[in-house]
What we know:
Keywords: Kinase, Transferase. By secondary structure, the chain is of the alpha+beta class.
Amino acid sequence: MALNDDIALLANVSLFADIGEDKLRLIAFGAERRRVPKGHELFREGAPADCAYAVAVGSFALSKADGDGRAEHVETVGRGTLLSELALISMVERKFTATAEEDSEVIRINRPLFRRMLEEYPEVTAMVEARIRANLEAMIRRVEALAGRFA
Length: 151
């Protein structure tokens, strides 16, 4: 895939939606494209996360271990999905296991590359902070909506 294709893909990722093409070029140029054959794991739940992955081609089944340690399917994601976005900011653990449902490709964005962009473009830092905050608030609302089930 060409650099311009990666820039176009990143522009469709919600976290990067309002970032200009010149800034996305920095990410796309420094990122690494990886192929993941059908049935192979991209990452495993509980593993340290040092990067995020944007799904470029194909789809991934996200699963989480249930109380007995068996994998429970959570959702399937495809092109334009950013996996482990918080890993771009700080050290976290993978919350799911991601397994390719078909031959797939991802764009691996490492934390030092992302931090470099934030340091060079303070206006991007404000946009990213607002997006992550909105995502966290939405997650909190979803959890609060479930709280009644467990009371």
